[in-house]
Every structure is written in C-alpha cells, then in structure tokens.
Amino acid sequence: MDLAQLQRFKDQLLALRDEATQAGDVAIEPMNDDPWDRADPDDDLPLNEMNQIIASERNRARTGSLEQIHAALKRIEEDPDEFGVCLTCDEHIDPRRLHLMPWTTICVRCLSEREQEGSLRRGRRKHLLDF
Length: 131
Ligand SMILES: [Zn+2]
What we know:
Elements: H1 3-21, H2 41-62, H3 66-78, H4 95-100, H5 108-130
Helix pairs in contact: 1-3
C-alpha cells in the first residue's frame, strides 16, 4: 500500500475516532421520572429501559470500537506494511472492505470461514444433543 493510500485510511480512522469520542452517539432518552406522567409505572418503566438498551446497542454496533480504531492507527504508525493485511492468512484485505471498515484485521474469506466454523460447531453441538 502506498503512502497516499495509507494517509487516506489514517485520516478516515482519525475522523471515526473523533466521531466516536465526541458527538457521534445517538442521544439516550432520559428515564421518565415524572410521577404524573406514569399512570401505570409497571408498564412504563420496562419500556424506558428497553429504549435505553436499544439506543446503547445501536451506538455499539454503529462503527468499529474505539479499541479497534486505536489499534488500526497504531498499526499505521508502527507497522505500516502490515496495515491492510489479514492477520489470519497474511493476504491483502480487499480495499473496498478496508474503505468500509478501515479498522478490520481480517479478510472476507477468513471471516466467512470463521463464521462457517462457528455454525458447524453449533450444528455439531445441536446434533450431539439429539442423541
Ligand atoms: Zn484472511
């Protein structure tokens, strides 16, 4: 990967990091503590809790974790030759995939193999339980 490309990914990662640390998060609705607005608190409260959980799940799934972004930036600084190389098979990760998620450290092929292994394992476990 040439330096210009590397710099682009670095800029992208820095922007993602800023977004993740600053105003990027979806606002989490405060709990409704107004007693007049809670005719049936037993029904109302779990819904608020649910909304909070959904909002924080959404924040987590929105982008790579800060940890992943920091790790990718560190790779660019310390080991630029290794950036964009799959940690599992040492092949170059598809640039289109890198543009979508510059923090990734695994190529599509290894990822799908890993997912297949996971589902096979689940399948076997289910099979064993059938006996
Ligand atoms: Zn791979």
